[in-house]
């Protein structure tokens, strides 16, 4: 079914409550596993339908935040979701207490019970108003960014639309675009500070109401960190500083040489890798999608079936338009057993990475679309990102289709970008640990902490006052995950590390690498992240040897890479 044909209906909280309570009583009354299972499957269907309606709202609202109907529906679901969470918690308690728990584990795996125990640690009815307020504040932040109107060269642009100018090969124009974007953030500084200040204090309060020292522990439970702890992240952080930061610094030193710029680089100069400009897609949006189709047809029968489905049923919204939410994402529409891709094409290499990155997520969801329970379609966030980031590396086989004459430039840029991203992403996570362990920091103190971290994780950047928004330590406010999904960002770093393992395998044997990828992907969310890796013959990013080995291989690859003829 085409996306536009999918019917939406608002489901009342009262109806959800009534049906959930009835199913709980039926589960308690079940005399056999088959009876209990029948109730469980009806609950799955009901939850899937509710989630479908909420998802349709979110997608249509993010496509057009100015649509009054879906703006109202988004507000409805923001308010309804904490109440729905309360009813689901009661269901979870009943399932955990079921005399048939062992039978459920045997047939459906133990992961849903592991995650269920975690869910219970994240909720109490007393925090419902706080959760509603949190949703409200996050929506306000997203709407603020979506509303951005940035004057530049006599026209007005959204945050997505100005991005190509921030990568322009003309030094003056590029710097001017960075300043224009930075000025918009500065003009909205007070509101950005207010929203985050409220979010931090709200989340800290929720943590304390649930019996935690601060939000950090609650944040880990909310992210379903079911196989690693804060100490493991700290260990990873140390390895990043030890192995990756020095390698990333060398990447930027070479970049400065190519550009004829002094090192460390300004933010505007760090944004352009080559004097001739960054790699650009070889075609328009339709041609990019067609190149994607050729790639997925070539890669495997499974990917071919998947991508043709996405095209035929119009399950991708890719163009940047007025009122559209920024960024990109992939989600599942459960009733229709299908993924959906949302993006903002802007004429940069980002457009290709949507067709590879978000499609990596979507492919994994498609492969696992029939899993029961539905929560095992997707693994944890860090595991999900492996699907997407690794798919980007598999797509390098089609670089010429995607980038034409810029293919050789892109392959270098892509690897360099993956390596330099991990320090940034780790810094985002480190910043959030500081913030939530010190919730009473003022906005100015938070900016100062970010500035300190930039000097540790991104020593190649010059904080010289050229663009006040960045030089004054406020650049983190561009990163919407910090507002909307606390502690999510380290997942990208862990996943990028595993993706680099796949890159390493691809260099040796593409078919063997794809086998490992499918072994990893076909598991869905049936086991925890570290088990997924083990079962697919991959190394854990928490082992220091993992990052060390990647850095050794990548350093040699980049130093030997032929950039002859590329300015």
Plain-language structure description:
The protein is mainly alpha-helical. It has a domain at 285-415 and 491-529: Neurolysin, domain 3 (Orthogonal Bundle), CATH 1.10.1370. The protein is 66% helix and 4% strand. It has 25 helices and 5 strands. Strands 3-5-4 form a 3-stranded mixed beta sheet, with helices on both faces. A hairpin with a 2-residue loop joins strand 1 (150-152) and strand 2 (155-157). The model has no long low-confidence stretch (mean pLDDT 95).
Name a few traits of the molecule.
Neurolysin, domain 3, two-stranded antiparallel sheet, single chain
Summarize the structure.
66% of the residues lie in helices and 4% in strands.
By CATH, the topology of the domain at 285-415 and 491-529 is Neurolysin, domain 3
Radius of gyration: 24 Å
Shape type: globular
- Total beta-strand segments: 5
Tell me the name of the CATH class of the domain at 285-415 and 491-529: Mainly Alpha
CATH architectural name of the domain at 285-415 and 491-529? Orthogonal Bundle
The SSE string, one letter per element, is HHHHHHEEHHHHHHHHEEEHHHHHHHHHHH
Query: How helical, in percent, are the residues?
Result: 55-70%
Our count of helices gives 25
Residues in β-strands, percent = under 5%
